[in-house]
């Protein structure tokens, strides 16, 4: 969902850095071969992730929700030369696709894939991180936050995607079987109230929150 008029949105994208060729290829192949291609971050959000990563210049990055690897490659653009990016996804059918594109990038040896539920994998990662991107199942966002906060270095950044959930976070009458909307409402409140982080919610695309560990 776009929260600004299409014409203005086109202008915004047009005046943003171009999408690297490798990511254009990845997007094309995702749309040809993989279910739910709209899950991919895409050109504009990808450039924002790249820019934030370059500003943070992280040594270690953690991504929760790899999908076909688009956002991982964007985040890797800002990583230090001796840095590592750890990315987790539960869908084993995506592993070879991700690896193919990671291997074509400049960061092949620095990107580490983890297959399984992030709830199981994060506690086993014996590392601290400077940048974390949360972009997996919405129901578990608060659990992910609680699992990573002690692994986040002071000054480290958590980026959380889809926090506006197409505007549904304003809807008090969500369906009974919709567990994601209340989970995101609770997550947004958690970020706002947790004194270990300072938080700004940006109305970019489907909502992207930046939280910085104090
Ligand atoms: C929105 S997509 C990620 C998009 C990707 N970050 C990008 O921008 O290109 C969400 C991904 O989270 C994964 N996922 C869902 N539940 C998960 C879990 N419990 N642990 C790890 N990954 C999960 C899905 O398999 C899916 O690939």
Could you provide a short overview of the structure?
The protein has 8 helices and 7 strands; from the N terminus they run H-H-H-E-H-E-H-E-H-E-H-E-H-E-E.
Notes on the protein architecture:
With 214 residues, the chain is α/β, with parallel strands linked by helices. It has a single domain, classed as 3-Layer(aba) Sandwich (Rossmann fold), CATH 3.40.50.150. It is built from eight helices and seven strands. The longest helix is centred in the first third of the chain and has 14 residues. Bound molecules: S-adenosylmethionine (SAM). The site of S-adenosylmethionine (SAM) has 17 residues, from helix 4 and strand 2.
Number of domains: 1
Please identify, by name, the CATH architecture.
Answer: 3-Layer(aba) Sandwich
| Radius of gyration using CA atoms only | 16 Å
**Named CATH topology:** Rossmann fold
**In sequence order, what are the helices and strands, one letter per element?**
HHHEHEHEHEHEHEE
Structural class: alpha/beta
Q: Low-confidence stretches at least 5 residues in length (pLDDT < 50)? A: none
Counting DSSP H or I runs of 4 or more residues, the number of helices is 8
What's the number of extended β-strand segments?
7
- According to CATH, the homologous superfamily is Vaccinia Virus protein VP39
Anisotropy-based shape: globular
On the 0-100 scale, what is the average pLDDT? 96
The unique ligands bound to this protein are: S-adenosylmethionine
CATH class: Alpha Beta
Which helices and strands appear, and what pairs or packs with what?
Elements lengths: L5 H9 L6 H13 L9 H14 L3 E5 L5 H7 L7 E6 L5 H10 L6 E5 L2 H4 L7 E6 L6 H8 L3 E10 L18 H14 L3 E6 L5 E6 L1
Parallel strand pairs: 1-2, 1-4, 2-3, 4-5
Antiparallel strand pairs: 5-7, 6-7
The structure holds S-adenosylmethionine.
């Amino acid at each position: 969902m776009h929260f600004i008029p299409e014409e203005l949105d086109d202008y915004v994208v047009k005046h943003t850095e171009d999408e690297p060729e490798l990511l254009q290829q990845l997007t094309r192949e995702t749309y040809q071969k993989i279910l739910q291609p709209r899950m991919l971050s895409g050109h504009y959000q990808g450039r924002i992730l790249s820019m934030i990563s370059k500003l943070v210049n992280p040594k270690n990055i953690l991504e929760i929700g790899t999908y076909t690897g688009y956002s991982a490659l964007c985040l890797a653009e800002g990583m230090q030369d001796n840095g590592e990016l750890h990315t987790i996804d539960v869908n084993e059918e995506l592993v070879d696709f991700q690896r193919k594109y990671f291997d074509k990038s400049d960061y092949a040896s620095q990107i580490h894939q983890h297959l399984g539920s992030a709830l199981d994998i994060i506690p086993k990662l014996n590392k601290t991180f400077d940048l974390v991107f949360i972009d997996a199942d919405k129901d578990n966002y608060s659990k992910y936050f609680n699992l990573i906060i002690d692994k986040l270095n002071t000054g480290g950044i958590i980026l959380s995607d889809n926090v506006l959930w197409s505007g549904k976070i304003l809807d008090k009458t969500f369906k009974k079987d919709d567990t994601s909307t209340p989970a995101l409402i609770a997550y947004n409140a958690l970020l706002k109230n947790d004194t270990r982080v300072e938080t700004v919610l940006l109305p970019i695309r489907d909502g992207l929150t930046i939280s910085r560990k104090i």
